[in-house]
Write a structure and sequence with these properties.
Elements lengths: L12 H20 L8 E7 L6 E5 L17 E7 L5 H16 L3 E5 L11 E8 H16 L15 E6 L11 E12 L2 E10 L7 E2 L2 E14 L2 E4 L11 H16 L5 E4 L4 H20 L2 H20 L4 E6 L3 E10 L2 E10 L5 E5 L2 E6 L4 H10 L8
Antiparallel strand pairs: 1-2, 1-3, 3-5, 4-5, 6-7, 7-8, 8-10, 9-10, 10-11, 10-12, 13-14, 14-15, 15-16, 16-17
Helix pairs in contact: 1-2, 3-5, 4-5, 6-7
Length: 390
Amino acid sequence: MKIRKVFEKLQDPDDMFEIFKDIVDDVMIIEFDREIDYKFKKGQIEILQRTQEIYLNPDISDDESIHEITEIDNWGFQFTMPDKRESKKRLQQRIIDIFKRETGVEIGSVEVVNTLYSNQNPEVEILFSKMEWINWVKNLKDFEEGHAEFDEYIPDKYKDINPIWEYVFTSPNRGNKYISKLFTYIFEVSKGIGLRVDFNRNTLLQEMNIQDGIITYETTYYPVYYGNGSWYILTDLIKMVNIDEMKKHNLINAADKLNSAPNSDLKIDLNDSYQDNVELFAKFLTENVFPLIENKDSKLIGDIEDQFIKLDKSDNILINSDMSKDKSSITWLCETEFNDNQYLFKVILDIDTEEVKIFGNNKTLIRCSINELSDALFLVIKDNKLTADN
């Protein structure tokens, strides 16, 4: 076994790489008792665009020797080992433990997806880097695979905004930054017209705009319309019979406002789980994007549900509701508890007149405006106009 110098909080990636190779050699020889072609690599961590997988981009010169790593804030080491299911996790952990003891640096590992197999000697490539970075890119990958689940966290008032999601890729510009137009949503606010939102980040770790685990996606907004099988940028110069001019101008203004707003870029926390970040994504859309493109129906739904919230805050009466909608009305099937009794009733909103009916006991109990709804509900419940459903 080779004798190695012990470093305290080692910083230089090239020195760490030499120590890493020695550790791997010692651990593997003890385990397999034979010489192995480890195919050692060192380089910078990327996330592949199409697969969202973690990848080591080795610095290789024309003669295939490994270049110096110049970015100490993004380094990774990789080697090839026999793919023994019963031992590979244990061996990785052994390497991690020894490396931390000898360098003071905590590393993690991830199995590289493009593993090469032969029938007789299956092998697997393992990438090692700082544990914090490994966790970050894993959480980033999880979010970028699962962000479409955001609709579970969207308020009912915005359910009519139809999200059309697609990945859009651009090739990395290796002469400058590794910019990737990663994913795009088109939020269709009415038939054939909507707002396109592009979310962009770099592929290289050190260029990903990460601060304390918070990554910022450069976010760009475009008003768009649908025609001839594709979506196109919408401008004031475009005149189409099937596009409402007021909706068009509203979308153009919304895109302009979002593109100039200071908080219009998406931020997620790579220290959190992907579920937390999907919920954060939904919150970003709900607070920043949707209010600027909501239609009349979504505004009415929001106004009604604000009345439910007002009733809870002022009179401590919590309304649980399920919403349904047709062309002329929006209905909430409501349930609440008051004085140890359970009550079921409906709130029905006429979309055209904006009149509200409270319906219970098979009849209309009261009619009111939206702004009067919380007071009307309080009177209906307090005065026992509803039959308890116990």
